[in-house]
Amino acid sequence: LRFNQEAIYDFEESILVADVGIRDLHITRMFPIRTSFFMFVLVEQGTMRIELDYSIHHLSKQDFLLILPEHIYQSISGSPDTRYRLIFVEQAYFDTMNRSKNDVLKTSFLNIRKDPVIHLSEKEFNVLASCHERLEQRMPAIHHFKKDIINALLLEYVIEAENMMINHHEHQVKQSNLTRQDIIFHNFLTLLKKDVIHQHHVSFYADKLHITP
């Protein structure tokens, strides 16, 4: 993927922040790749189509997409009027940020892999758009503590986004007709969130779920 340089800001070649249209994106070569980055996409207008892990996802206004490291990323396209806000972070950089390894995205990792697109309310959209704007404004600034500010603003964006995704997935569980497998899977994720720091054995979780290892 290649972007028009005037459309983006980058920091240490590890963070890219952009407010762009589909025409600003040039696809120089397309093939399945296993990602090594986090990509946050906030759709402002138009429609997009993206293929992840061999599943096709359609996005429109006020949709939010999170691509995680290890996602198999295949293709992206959009309508001519599509505009979206993009944040791209290399995993190696993300792992150096405070809290990132142990807290951010850990609690909803598996749900996001399975369902990486959510539709935001207007209020939720405005929260993420505001976070994005503040980060974008700071990218070109000269500041003695620029890295600390960018990390703090990026972390704020990530935490807000994860909160919205957790709320969305919990609402889905309550509203859908779940199979027994779905219920077991959801309860397992809930246990992981609470106990994974101290409990690393399959038998512990099997006992709690009343199933065999």
Would you kindly provide a written description of the structure presented here, covering whatever features stand out?
The chain has 213 residues and is α+β, with helices and mostly antiparallel strands. Helix content is 38%, strand content 28%. It has helices at residues 91-94, 109-114, 122-138, 146-175, 180-195, 202-209, and strands spanning 2-3, 8-11, 15-21, 25-26, 33-34, 37-45, 48-52, 55-59, 63-67, 72-78, 83-90, 117-119. The mean pLDDT is 84.
Task: State the main characteristics.
alpha+beta; 213 residues; four-stranded antiparallel beta sheet; single chain; 38% helix
Number of distinct beta strands: 12
Query: Could you tell me the radius of gyration in angstroms?
Result: 18 Å
Low-confidence stretches: none
- Largest beta sheet: what is the strand line-up? 2-3-11-6-9-12
Average pLDDT number: 84
Shape: globular
The portion of residues forming beta strands comes to 25-35%
- The structural class is alpha+beta
The total count of helices amounts to: 6
What distance lies between the first and last C-alpha atoms, to the nearest angstrom? 43 Å
Let me know the largest β-sheet: 6 strands, antiparallel
Q: Helix content range of the residues, please?
A: 25-40%
Pattern of helices and strands: EEEEEEEEEEEHHEHHHH
